[in-house]
Amino acid sequence: MSRASGRPGHSELRIIGGQWRGRKLRFAPEEGLRPTTDRVRETLFNWLTPEVHGARCLDLFAGSGALGLEALSRGAAHCDFVDTSPRVIRQLRQHLDTLGAGAAGCCHQRPALDYLAGQSDAAQPWDIVFVDPPFGHALAGPSCAQLDARGLLAPDALVYLETGAGEPLPELPAGWDCHREKRAGGVAYRLFVVTPG
């Protein structure tokens, strides 16, 4: 979890690399909000370094926006942020405006599976997708299945999947190859390369 700030009831997210390196963004905690830790983000973006510049990204269970904002800081061309909470979406829009990145980020207040169901392969596909759902709600597998079945991924897209360390890996579509895998505390995180069928 991000460190609590000096202001009661708020926490801080620190961007760890790229053009906004060191910037701190304050957010109000929400039930179930579990920002990806600095340590995990640093490892993940070391994995993504060759691919993130110019990429179209999707932060599917955005929460604090840690993953999508980090991607934009490191040169991603665009990121869609999806979350069910109106307060989370409001804060993400404020963060994008504060960073001067309003044109690069688009925020969608919808359940992740509903959002994916409303997309079609006519839309621009995503190059990098962050799937970091609340633990214990069986959302990771259906989210990955929708991404694959609806043709929403670019060829050789990268999908980051974060789950509880004690949770079994959900059944994933054919052609999803685990490229990297690590554990940190109670978290298991993996990066998949999705090869065209």
Automatic annotation (TrEMBL):
Q: Which domain of life is it from?
A: Bacteria
Reactions it catalyzes? guanosine(966) in 16S rRNA + S-adenosyl-L-methionine = N(2)-methylguanosine(966) in 16S rRNA + S-adenosyl-L-homocysteine + H(+)
Broad EC category: transferase
Ranges annotated as spanning the membrane: none
Residues annotated as coiled-coil are none
What EC number(s) does this enzyme carry? 2.1.1.171
Q: Which UniProt keywords apply?
A: Methyltransferase, rRNA processing, S-adenosyl-L-methionine, Transferase
The keyword Nucleotidyltransferase is annotated on this UniProt entry: no
Q: Which GO MF term does the entry hold, naming one?
A: 16S rRNA (guanine(966)-N(2))-methyltransferase activity
User: What's this protein's function?
Assistant: Specifically methylates the guanine in position 966 of 16S rRNA in the assembled 30S particle.
Q: Which family does it belong to?
A: Belongs to the methyltransferase superfamily. RsmD family.
Name-wise, this protein is Ribosomal RNA small subunit methyltransferase D
Native organism is Mangrovimicrobium sediminis
**What is the primary gene name for this protein?**
rsmD
